[in-house]
């Protein structure tokens, strides 16, 4: 049944239920018909027996002849009739010629009941092998018993009725199978249409959507859910395409610069100092390139959920102190003043490597986008069960138009490109992923006149 289509399954169940109901109905009808048929035989028999009893009352002498004649009679179903007249002890007085047995079987108990006025019906098998339906009644004076029997072997009415029922049942079940198939096909037509529409949707045309049916049914609901899923897929495909385009662009530019530099250097013979300069420039570009590739690798792994995060209870205080020391070293060439303010301790559940990467990216930005002689301040505070790290600078700041985009991959504000052309625009995307994977948040407040303040909030443990 597993390989059956929904259409076949629906039709099968529908026909089975219908067929079951039909069998039950047929059985009850057949039983009712058989009962009514037997009843009509009994009524006929009783009337005949009463006729003989009447004859016995009118003239006892003609009774014998009358009974003898009965064997030549047949009822309306052409069934043979049998008669026996018994005395009150159950002994045979006379019988119809066709009755070979002494009389129709009767026990002493039944005899008593009949003599007390009860009309007694019974179905028996005669010595000739006929199935007989018999009735026994007492005469009016209670001196004799009249037995009247009829062969019911050739009572074909119930058989004909059963045959008709079976034929009609078969026709009805066959009809319901085809009717069920038709109905299932009709009701599943929207699903067929949906399949055809879905087959037309390819990765290049994810903008297409399923037609929503006007009827408020399950098909409409499924179409809605599939359309929502297609929108999500389209978004992520667009995202991946954009990412690939941006990444290739970001890698192509430094490679083209390096290639051009080397080609110019090789175009004619030069001093050794010229070659050294070209090599130094190429090395610098390669450094930038490898940083972009490294960042891309981190983000790709993060997207695929394959970056293994090992969280442990860690104190942010010593890390902030270390980062401040590193910051002082990289800020020194620009004569940037670095200050730090922190609480005693702030413990979180985190991956130390990633937290360091987060802070280094933020202090790297602060140094990159703060002009010489500027100031960078680091704060570590505890607030409402959260640790807050603020990295504040008085650098070039970020305009209000740029702020919503700075966490996007490869996004760089135009003033940042002018101030420092060494970034790939991936640092803050990584910061955001790290903060999210630690169930925290990162926000920025910035003013191009005053500088920027990045706040990282992480839940303490
Ligand atoms: N402290 C800051 N001051 C001013 N602008 C900033 C600061 N931090 C980030 N920005 C802006 O946000 C943009 C994105 O920063 P992000 O760290 O993602 O990239 P990047 O520093 O340019 O390159 P990368 O970090 O990949 O080397 C920057 O290009 C800059 O425009
Ligand atoms: Mg950066």
Give an account of the 3D structure.
The structure is a single chain. It is rod-shaped, with a radius of gyration of 53 Å. It is of the alpha+beta class and 461 residues long. It has three domains: 153 residues, Beta-Lactamase (2-Layer Sandwich); 86 residues, Signal transduction histidine kinase, dimerisation/phosphotransfer (DHp) domain (Helix Hairpins, Orthogonal Bundle); 148 residues, Histidine kinase-like ATPase, C-terminal domain (Heat Shock Protein 90, 2-Layer Sandwich). Bound molecules: adenosine-5'-triphosphate and magnesium ion. Magnesium ion (MG) binds next to α9. The site of adenosine-5'-triphosphate has 24 residues, from α9 and α11.
Record field, number of beta strands: 12
Number of helices: 11
| Main CATH class of the largest domain | Alpha Beta
Which percent bin holds the helix content?
40-55%
| Ligand names | adenosine-5'-triphosphate, magnesium ion
Roughly what fraction of the amino acids lie in strands?
15-25%
What does this entry show, briefly?
53% of the residues lie in helices and 17% in strands. It has helices at residues 6-58, 60-70, 108-115, 157-187, 189-200, 218-266, 272-303, 316-331, 352-368, 414-419, 427-437, and strands at residues 81-87, 92-95, 120-125, 131-138, 144-151, 312-315, 337-342, 347-350, 375-383, 386-393, 441-447, 451-459.
